[in-house]
Structure formats: structure tokens, C-alpha cells
Amino acid sequence: MYGQAPSATEIERLARAALARIPEPFASHLADVVLIVEEFADDETLDSLGIEDPFDLTGLYHGRPIGEKSAFDSGTLPDRIHLYRRPILDEWVATGVGLDALVSHVVVHEVGHHFGLSDDDMHALEDGAE
User: Fold this and answer.
1) Residues 63, 73: contact at Cβ < 8 Å?
2) Residues 6 or more apart whose Cβ sits within 8 Å of residue 100
3) What is the DSSP string of 32-98?
4) Mean pLDDT in residue range 95-114
5) Which of 12, 51, 56, 104 could be 18's S-S partner, Cβ–Cβ 3.0 to 4.6 Å?
6) Radius of gyration of the chain from Cα atoms?
7) What are phi and psi of 5, to 5 degrees?
8) What is the DSSP letter of 4?
9) Is the pLDDT of residue 83 over 90?
10) In the predicted model, what is the mean pLDDT of the chain?
């Protein structure tokens, strides 16, 4: 499928396609979320999460979940979804899952955090959908 490892641009294209498939009423709450594709999470992020191996983090949501936002919020950074290209590619190779499906999974997981779902909530929803 790819002659070389997919670029950050290709990962971003797949991620934007995944975001475009999210239905209303959720999609309208994602208009201001910034999507960022980086090679790896920085050391500060990894340290704050207690993660030693940078390959263990494929994506991260930075921001306040919608239910915690206030009309009085100002001067804060926009909500952001970070995707980490190298860990995503490593998981892609290790699992054999299609790259589009894997990127979509990571994006939907981070969108879940935007809506205030915990990792446990999302795993329960995924288990129930299988």
C-alpha cells in the first residue's frame, strides 16, 4: 500500500477524514478543536502521564471536556487533539490493522475525551459494540 512510511500529512488526512465521519450533534462541538500530528509526545507530556516509552502514546487530548466548559473561560488555548505518528505507525505494523482504521480509532478515542468520557468508559463502549 505504501512504498515508504506514511508522512505526518497522510496521517493528518486520515484523521481529518475520521473527524468528518463523526455525526451530528457531536460534529458541531468539534469545529474549534485543533488537530496536530507530531512524531512523538514531548518528554514533559510523557513524564506528566507516567509513560516511559514514547511508543506507548498514540494520541492525546489537551483541553477541558465540553461539560466542564464555562462562558467565563477566556484566554485559554484551544482544545487540541495530538496524534503521534511514529507510535501510530509502530502499532500499525505490529497489529496489522489498516492504517485508516487505526487512525480513526485513535481520533475517536481522543474525541471521546473531548466529550468527557474516561478511558474506562470508552473501553466499555467498544466492548459493547463488538
Assistant:
1) no
2) 14, 17, 18
3) TPEEEEESS--HHHHHHHT---GGG--EEEES--GGG--TT--SPPPPEEEEEHHHHHHHHHHH---
4) 90
5) 104
6) 15
7) -60, 135
8) S
9) yes
10) 85
Cell numbers 497489529 correspond to what residue?
A: 95
Q: How far apart are CA 89 and CA 92, in angstroms?
A: 5
- How many other CB atoms are found less than 10 A from the CB of residue 99? 18
- Residue 14: alpha-carbon gap to chain centroid: 12
Q: How far is CA 62 from CA 34, 37, 52, 55, in A?
A: 10, 13, 19, 19
Instruction: Quickly state the pLDDT bin for 64 (edges 50, 70, 90).
Output: confident
Residue (of 44, 27, 84) closest to 61 by Cα position: 84
State how far the Cα of 100 lies from the Cα of 81, in Å rounded to an integer.
Answer: 17
pLDDT for res 74:
62
The answer for 75, left when phi > 0, alpha when psi is -120 to 50, beta otherwise, is left
d(CA 83, CA 88): 8
Question: Which of 20-34, 40-54, 74-88 reaches the highest mean pLDDT?
Answer: 40-54
